[in-house]
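JOB MANIFEST
job_type = single_chain_structure
chain_count = 1
residues = 128
[input]
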Amino acid sequence: MSVINTIGRRKTAVARIYMKPGKGKIVVNGRDAEDYFHSDVLVTIINQPLELLEETGNYDIKVNLDGGGLAGQAEALRLAISRALLEVSEEYRPALKKEGYLTRDPRMVERKKYGRRKARRKFQFSKR
């Protein structure tokens, strides 16, 4: 198996990964995943597909992350890892699909409209 290249998106975050067999090292933008994502919760989100399929420690993953915040980047990375695992074996599809790791979350920030303070918030009404 050679290097598997996949992409994952969430809000405005984009994760491009290169996965190959290895010892389980995840490098994000040249830094270790634990250093890049300060929160244990975000590191757990990243490892969810690997732990579900009991593939933790079998693949080295090099990640290029761009855009969004840390939470959006973590979920984009989870989607990219799930898609890469599908390329390894199609037998993983039912388990990943059941947990919702293959679904791209379509929710985006609603744009601000003119004549409003925010997307939906109106200016305060003054009677006098």
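[summary]
The mean pLDDT is 93.
Helices lie at 33-36, 40-52, 70-88, 93-99.
exit_status = 0
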